[in-house]
Amino acid sequence: MTVCMVSQRLGEYFYESKLFFNIQKQQTMNTIAKNSLAVGKYVNTEHVDTLIRNYKKERWMQNSERMGKDDSISLWWTADELEEFIQTAKVHGADGIRVCFGVYGDKDCRPGMEGKMTVALVATVNEMDTAGNMVPKDVYIERDGNHTVLAYNMAFPPLPGTGTTITMGALMVANKEKGLQVI
After folding, report:
1. Are 112 and 134 in contact (CB under 8 A)?
2. Residue 81's domain spans which residues?
3. Rg of the chain over CA atoms, in angstroms?
């Protein structure tokens, strides 16, 4: 969220992203004002490349071999739809998002994604347990007459040539059966 503040003698004027104004319209400005616990941090290209290289070496190669096709290496959503999901989560009292790893089944995904890894975003709210620890609990909503978790999935994998793929150096791995492999 972009926040620009200009202070003048008669008061302060705030300009914030459209997310702020949409949330304010729904009378949930108090969720923005809460102090939140930061559990992550911004990282650099080297860190991301190392994570991807480790994933390819430790999980992706084995998953792809077992499946007989390349597994997912990343997923993509637009910034607007992520912003909208976060806004919806806040409207329903969420103060966090849990990322759940999963695998598409044969009947619940778009063609070509069967058996591939995915993630689901689940809205959460921190609650105090009996020991006094803050524990994230899933947020449930009413949808079509059913009580269900507030979650988001069905991302697109980056498509070749779209500019959304991650590029980095090659990783060579020794495999007893296949010899030296470049991944």
Report:
1. no
2. 52-182
3. 21
**Stated pTM of the model:** 0.65
Asked whether residue 130 is domain-assigned, the answer is yes
Q: Look at residues 99, 96, 100 and name the one whose alpha carbon lies nearest to residue 86.
A: 96
Residue written as token pair 């007893």? 176
Confidence of residue 164 (pLDDT cuts 50, 70, 90): very low
| Distances 4 to 14, 16, 21, 28, 88 between C-alpha atoms, Å | 6, 7, 14, 20, 24
Q: Where in 17-85 does DSSP place strands (E)?
A: none
Which DSSP symbol is given to 166?
-
95-122: pLDDT as tens digits = 999 999 999 888 877 778 888 999 999 9
Tally of domains in the chain: 1
